[in-house]
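PT: before anyone asks, these are the final sequences, not the draft ones from last week. 325 residues across everything. Please model them as a single complex and drop the result in this thread when it's through.
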Amino acid sequence: MTLLHLDHADTLQLPVTGDGPFNILHTLWKPSHYATGLEAHTRESSWRTFRVGDLTAGVRLRYEDRTVIADIHTDGDYKPHHREQLTARLIASYGLDEDAAAFTALAEQVPAMREPLAALAGMRQSCPEDYFEIAVIALLLQNTTVSRTTTMTRNLLTHHGKLVHFDGITLRAWFTPAELAAVTAATLKEKDRLGYRANSLPAFAAFFTDHTSDELAGEDLVEVFQEIKGVGPYTAAVMASHASRDPSVFGIDVWNRKILARRIFDAADADPTAITRRMNDLFPGHAGTAALYLVEHEYLNAPVAPLLDPAGIGAWNQALEATAA
DNA sequence: AGCCAGGTAATCC
DNA sequence: GGATTACATGGC
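LR: through. Structure below.
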């Protein structure tokens, strides 16, 4: 894999237009998210890659005066429609136009939400992934350890994605569905160590090669997505709560099940349907947002992928570039 | 060694 | 329908 250098092409000023508090640090960086190499965060700046149509973009994000400033770097012809697509993608990915007031008002009434709210108020769901990308993430999380998920993600991105450098940072970038469709199940199993997932990933690539995100908008996606082999209730709910940004939905798995059981029932574990019912009772219409706050608060003091010290960026770059040789 | 991981589909009754 | 089981792999 070669290291692709991206040049500065644009600067977008994205005002935060939603009501309520806004927390830039925890909107961009989630303490519970495992390391993918697709993004990097310091306290002052975040860097993230996006695949937008034919374009590979590297974005640095900063925040001042209730405005997100996005410096766009690209590998090729940057056209006006790219600017439009990226603007829409960034606003949606980080919920810059979403209100936090309704959830905050609900959360203030619930004792279990006191500390999470104090620490994280104004955090939005973050999902820079599109439907295909978040489906791949959810697939790699199914019935395995995060350590193995991290390995499989690294294998896929190293073997089939891109490695880019811009604004002093090196990051991985996703493959597109069409690019992944060219990879055989045998390769996914033997080279990328995906196990039985090797048989479902090609179905994901095929589905999203045939269906663009735009034409899926408006469908009942939780139902539609489950027509893809390998997508069940959990993966579909992750897609809905993250990429569709439905604040009422959350995918329940053995990981957040235990976190939520402890936070709302003071129990080590609980029945998934009981948890879902209780979350919906406590936070009508906002159970997904509530789950997000409870889970991120759980990891706040022991992040899975900690913030980067600016002095550590050199070592970060070297580690990623070592996989390029 | 055996069990379990941030599930899903196939196969039972 | 709900309950049961195989599915790959790696870490503890």
